[in-house]
Amino acid sequence: MNKTITGCIVTYNNIATIDNALGSLFKCTEAPFHLFVVDNGSTDGTVEHIEKHYPEVTLIRSNSNIGFGSGHNLVIDRLDSDYHAIINPDIIVKDDVISKLSEYLDSNKDVGMVSPEIRFPDGRLQILGKRNPRPCYLAASRMRGSGEPGKLLREYAMMDHDLSKPIDIENATGCFMFIRTELFKEIGGFDERYFMYFEDCDLTREVNSRCRTVYYPGATVYHEWGRESKKNFKLKLVQINSMMHYFAKWGLK
């Protein structure tokens, strides 16, 4: 049976990437799929571009930058789907990822959320945390240069496991999450005390307290990962504040 699927992208001055995201999603997705875009007060023409070129999108204006999780939560009361995709505005898909993830949840009733394989646009695998964050893991990620990941980062990304097969994970990245809509509503969406960063780790822990989260390499998305917190001092402070809230809520393990 075909399931109904919704998705949401939160934008903030994303005119440079939004065409690739929306264009690839609409081109590749064959499953019944309705996409919301919540705009957090863009001033670069993102809203006007979406209104002109993507009439199939339901566009919601928050009028100010309320943050990642709060933006995604604006659609919760509008969702009447079976599954819901949380998507970054710098994501590109090259095949019908939405259908693949839907079919995986169809076949695995005990899985509440699934995370696809995530690669850079040039095909390189992104080294992303799959275990719960710990200070040592975050320090290893922050200090990593351009070389191969060290022991701690490999452990954080579960590179000590066979990632060519589906595997249960503690932490799913927020650039692309695929969750049962009923579960997303039950949890109440994202914890809005996080403006940005760590809200994905938090949501995964909420999911795992109820069911399973699985990394599924049978579906791949491409992410133009900018790691802006390494370049922008204000974002670095936002990340530190979110980290402190996360560890105060969940502890250091």
Please write out the topology.
Blueprint: E1 5-11, H1 18-28, E2 33-39, H2 46-53, E3 58-61, H3 68-73, E4 83-87, E5 91-92, H4 97-107, E6 111-119, H5 135-143, H6 151-156, E7 167-168, E8 176-180, H7 181-187, H8 199-208, E9 212-223, H9 233-250
Parallel strand pairs: 1-2, 1-4, 2-3, 6-9
Antiparallel strand pairs: 4-8, 5-9, 6-8, 7-9
Largest beta-sheet details:
9 strands, mixed
Which H/E pattern describes the elements?
EHEHEHEEHEHHEEHHEH
Question: What is the tally of beta strands?
Answer: 9
Helical fraction equals 25-40%
Return the structural class.
Answer: alpha/beta
Mean pLDDT rating: 94
Number of helices: 9
Shape: globular
The end-to-end distance, rounded to whole angstroms, is 40 Å
Radius of gyration over all CA atoms, rounded: 17 Å
Which stretches are low in confidence, meaning pLDDT under 50 for 5 or more residues running? none
Strand content: 15-25%
